[in-house]
Amino acid sequence: MRHVLMRAGRGAAVALTCAGLMTSLAGCTGSGVAAMGKPPSPEDTIRVIPDDGAREVLAGGPLEIRLPSGRLERVKVMRIESETPTPVPGRISEDELRWQPTDGTRLDLAAKYSVDVVALDAHGRRSARHTTFTTKVPEHRFIGYFKPENRATVGTGMIVSFDFNQKIENRAAVERAIKVTSDPPVEIVGHWFDKDRLDLRPESYWEPGTRVTVAVRLRDIEAAPGSYGIQDKTVSFTVGRSQVSLVDAEAKTMAVRRDGQLLATVPITAGAPKSTTYNGKMVVSDLYDVTRMDGRTVGFGGEYDIKDVPHAMRLTESGTYLHGNYWAAADIFGSVNVSHGCIGLRDVKGGSGDTPAGWFFDRTLVGDVVEVINSRDKLVAPSNGLSGWNLPWASWKEGSALR
Fold it and tell me: Which InterPro entries would you find in this protein's record (predicted)?
């Protein structure tokens, strides 16, 4: 929403009332003689917009201080009633008769502000004025749920992903309010999947050791008519070592590479011919020591319901996991694809660190990449989990609302 700063009306001329005035103004002033009348009140000389005690002031103002004559000596506008009172940046005009916020300044919504002004009038007399006002309290708010968690250590394929609790109409404003930076610095660009999800990533996987900062400045950003953000926080995460695992669905193997060096090649079972595994780059988004897998939640009816699947690593939102499998015979792994689309590693009931599944689970971070090749299925959709690495960089950038 765009707000237009309204110009204040022209201040009325200050009238000097002199005691004993009868027929002329000759007795009111004279060389070296001070005015005899009562000085004008600060309310008359210092014009503050919005009015003292005003409520429902919009985030874009109007906010202005004006004098009819004289000069502004000092102006301080502060957000009060918060843990740390925050000044509103602004500037006094060259003629010293007007103060306005600096360009781009927006007030916080649902906040109280104080205005303190010291000014000199045309006769050199100092006066001061104090006012307060309160900004609009929106009826509707929106928030973004995002990964990864603050202070996490993640794999080099981590994508910063925001899921919003409502459709975002003003996507450019929301994307602009979310700033992702890194040390060492790289270009990081956002990509929208529909109107309720924004993912951000660099062109290539993060370098190990990179520190990433996510500044979320959504408070008072209008995402849709009448709906404003409430989040104002900064989180950070660190990129750990590089681990990329290549699953060959035809060979039924997974080659695990750490920082480019082959750690191990382990036998797997992938999707059966009627329920093949997606091809493409997928990113581990969640780790579960044990979880329940019910085929009814992913469109397989009652074909399976396993309440204690060990060492489960989520790869897509649609239900693709890389997980331990204790119910298949040991000779299945590396020889036959029997799963419903997941990637299975040999395990035992209850899980064990001595099995291929336990070994891999203990060496996996959220953000690690698992790439599947040679499956008789389509490429995983970039929006299915953190699978955005399957989009070329040019196509990824086209999905930004800022380009």
Answer: Big_10, LD-transpeptidase, LD_TPept_cat_dom, Transpep_catalytic_dom
